[in-house]
Amino acid sequence: MNIQNIVAKKKFGQNFLKDQSVLAKIIEAMPKNNHKVVEIGPGLGDLTKFLVDVRSVEAFEVDTDLCKLLSSIFKKEIATKQLHINCGDVLSAWQSELVSEPYDLVANLPYYIATNIILKALADPMCKNILVMVQLEVAEKFCADAGEKVFGSLGIITQSVGTAKIIVKVPPTAFDPQPKIDSAVFLIQKHADRSDKDFEDMLRVAFSQPRKTLRKNLSAKYDKELLAEAFETLELAPTIRPHQVCTKDYHQLYKII
Ligand code: SAM
Fold first, then answer.
1. Whose CA is closest to 24, among 51, 56, 3?
2. Which residue owns the Cα nearest ligand 1 atom 19?
3. Is 22 in the pocket of ligand 1 (CB under 6 A)?
4. What is the pLDDT of residues 46-84, one digit of tens each?
5. Could you tell me the pTM of the whole model?
6. Where are the beta strands (DSSP E) in the chain?
7. Is the CB of 41 within 6 Å of ligand 1?
8. Any long-range contacts for 3-11 (C-beta under 8 Å, 24+ apart)?
9. CA 171 to CA 168: how far, in whole Å?
10. Is the Cα torsion angle 176, 182, 187, 192 positive or negative in sign?
11. Regarding beta strands 57-61 and 36-40, do their DSSP bridges make them parallel or antiparallel, or are they unpaired?
């Protein structure tokens, strides 16, 4: 397989990152450690080239044409075991353990499954840090803070396990082919593993109607008396909206109700 014969496949979310300054910023932002790197969707290998210079890489690529191309580009790195390529759907591979040692996820993700991948990485005890390019809107949700309009379940789940920040916003011109939307690279440094399922169920109820009050949303599923007690204890106004409550208070609320 020759690089000239490759045509980007829309169904696999293939927008190849060509801007060298963005690639450099991703490498610069990598946490300093010796963990293995998991790269999901190495594509034409533009980011992989930099990653294999600094860490050993476990890559997952669904497109068999790209797998063949990558195997020839990275012959040496594969031979020295600096790079291992798994050809197939990463979500199927993730039915069980993805890799059996601590790792950092570093990738320009396929956008159609990016949120799903990040939530899986947050839940995976082997994953220690997440440095990924996604749609800007999605990055902003993961990095949001209480009070911001886009603060919701994704921001709360992230803040429950670590800290998140946007590294760089990236325009469509950085890619070939160019996507229609803006993108961003962001970093989550994990200090714990993802919160439990019941807590996340409560968040779903809390944000079921984002413009209604938090109390109204929660009263659809939780005991009204306990709710009244919780709001009083935490000094939350009855009119407060879901996005105005901080992560710490959501955990307190969960304990009470
Ligand atoms: N890393 C490359 C770059 O930065 O130029 C490519 C990024 S492109 C946005 C997304 C990549 O993810 C593509 O190579 C695509 O084939 C791959 N991909 C899409 N769905 C996938 C899946 N389910 N499992 C593994 N790889 C996938």
1. 51
2. 12
3. no
4. 999 999 999 999 999 999 999 999 999 999 999 999 999
5. 0.96
6. 16-17, 36-40, 57-61, 83-87, 103-108, 127-135, 162-170, 175-176, 183-190
7. yes
8. 3/44, 3/69, 6/44, 6/65, 6/66, 6/69, 8/176, 8/177, 9/63
9. 10
10. negative
11. parallel
